[in-house]
Task: structure prediction
Amino acid sequence: MLTHRIIPCLDVRDGRIVKGIKFQGLRDAGDPAERASVYEAQGADELVILDVSATPEGRSTAAETVRRVRRVLGIPLTVGGGVRIADDAARLLDAGADKVACNTAAVSNPGLLTDLATRFGSQCAILAIDAAGRPDGLGWEVVTHSGKNRTGRDAVEWAREAVERGAGEIVLTSWDRDGTREGYDTALLTAISSAVSVPVVASGGAATPEHLAAALRAGAEAVLAASIFHDGDYTVSQVKAYLASQGFEVRR
Amino acid sequence: MSQPVSVIRTGTANLASVLAALERAGARPTLTDSADEVSSADRVVLPGVGAFGAAMPLLREHGLDAALVARVREGRPLLCICLGMQLLFEGSEESPGVPGLGLIEGQVTRFQGQGLRVPQLGWNQLTAGPQCQLLSDGYVYFANSFRVEHPPHGFHVALSDHGGHFVAAIERGPLLACQFHPELSGAFGQVLLRRWLDAGERPC
Result:
């Protein structure tokens, strides 16, 4: 049986890990390659690197970071941030990524997903959706540009369309929960994971192993978390032991 | 001493991971699209690429199809990964009408099942048959929408389950073909790569 994946996420800028609340107030949390090795040794099933730099110089630094991480990392690596055209993805794959995630660029140009799936396969074309509750409380809308832009677009509809266009996996971040440590938005997870057949990865808001279990119960195939691991609150193996005790299949 | 391995350049996807894992396993990998090299090299890796229908013309263009067929018939060391394994078969539902290398009888088909997540992305349990020399039980990483459902004749087989059993890997001497990604399967994958490299050692 396929096991549930635990995926630490490294937000990286200028070759260093940063993590902040709602992408603001970034603070340094270490070297990506060192952290990557630690997480693999703890039993991480995959690693995500999110390039949060905004400049062309930052982008080339990101490719170098991917190269350094790849040399030491023996588990799958997804890289996101700044993927606007298929050639951007090719550069990251050449550097050592196994999967590439796109977000804002796919919202403005959904054909990007088809390009990625045709050229590299759907299993390589990951869509990141940032979603926030609508002001009227009815459903969720897609937000872009690190939350600055509320598109008005229904998140469930967008997930469906993206899968039709070739997305092979959805990393779903609750903009309302990201960095809050209040737990994932489980209603959002259930809405999206029951609307599509591809795996959905929960992201944004986790602070305890119970939060991760709640996301899996809500329909997520995998859970992504950052600060819960970076701050040393829990190791990946502690989280997996808890999930196993709750009856979830995990690799141990 | 590090062993030379020729890795077939099959497109951009994931090659860096294959090269890095072989280096960590103690090999010295180089990329090639030369039929001569695929024929003469001590060890060859055919890694996974995007789509069945795109990969076969690439192999044919460089005459690599014939070189690979000869290698398999002669029982020389070859490691096929993901799509690389599927190409050994006669064809795939992914690309109807495109013949594979045809070394093994059978078709590659899409995962089917109510509520089944496709692609299969993640770690699944590998159960190796008792005759397997290289493969053993453990967790390995998959990223695939298509698979071989029925074990082929003439190979030792390891199975996994995703909406029913499917062929996770096959081996015969120094021929190892994995639907999963040994290069992404952590410590387990490293041990498997090491075993395959050693299986490729010719007696002095």
